[in-house]
Specification:
Glutaredoxin; seven-stranded mixed sheet; 4 helices; elongated; transmembrane helix; transmembrane
Length: about 220
């Protein structure tokens, strides 16, 4: 028969071991609970992020629709000098899709994030409106013409544009007049390359006060 001391020692060891087992069990339960709670939190954050992105995208689309409606509600008013000024709101959002402009050629509005090179660039083919509008946002004057324009006038205008930074030129078969000049928010028709209003328009609107982003680049953009 064992001594009382050895019995007490064995009993203490059993209690200590039982306490250790209980502690390890609590630790395992704690780890499981932490993992479960973390998973719930992460799932909640992911869900909230997806909801926020969806909500933000919807809000952005609604804003773009409202902006387009506001621009379409505008119209041109013609000054004594013959320059037409757009009265509607001209938005400046960068978009990756085609834009339906309320005027031809457009004089502003949502546009591509890439501008058309406008450092005296003369294009032989029609260019995307969305890139040309971005060029006008930088303060460029855009000269456009149809096949009804006199070839001599086209040649003279091309020479002028090629010598004028912050200007560009291209054909536009959809415009109503043979030769038109456009800048951000402004536009006019001219009769010929020698029309005095050509020089006046250039002087007023090449990097003029209407420019939303004066001094922005007219190179390193899109070209044909």
């Amino acid at each position: 028969m064992g001594s009382p001391n050895s019995t007490d020692t064995a009993t203490r060891k059993e209690r200590i071991e039982e306490m250790r087992r209980a502690e390890r069990s609590r630790e395992r339960r704690g780890r499981v609970l932490t993992i479960v709670v973390s998973g719930v939190v992460v799932a909640g954050l992911v869900g909230f992020g997806a909801w926020a992105l969806t909500k933000g995208d919807a809000a952005s689309k609604d804003s773009a629709k409202a902006d387009a409606k506001s621009a379409a509600a505008g119209s041109f008013t013609t000054g004594a000098d013959g320059v037409r000024t757009w009265t509607g709101k001209l938005t400046r959002n960068h978009v990756a899709h085609k834009v339906t402009y309320p005027m031809t050629p457009p004089v502003g509005g949502d546009h591509s994030q890439v501008w058309m090179n406008c450092n005296g660039d003369v294009y032989k083919k029609a260019i995307p409106n969305e890139n040309a509008v971005h060029a006008m946002e930088h303060g460029a004057v855009w000269v456009t013409y149809t096949d009804k324009a006199d070839p001599g006038d086209v040649k003279k205008l091309a020479a002028k544009v090629s010598q004028t930074p912050y200007s560009l030129m291209s054909p536009d078969p959809d415009q109503k007049d043979p030769i038109m000049l456009s800048a951000w928010g402004h536009q006019r028709t001219v009769k010929s390359a020698t029309d005095p209003d050509v020089n006046t328009f250039f002087a007023s609107f090449v990097q003029g006060k209407q420019t939303p982003e004066p001094g922005a680049a007219c190179t390193n953009g899109l070209t044909q």
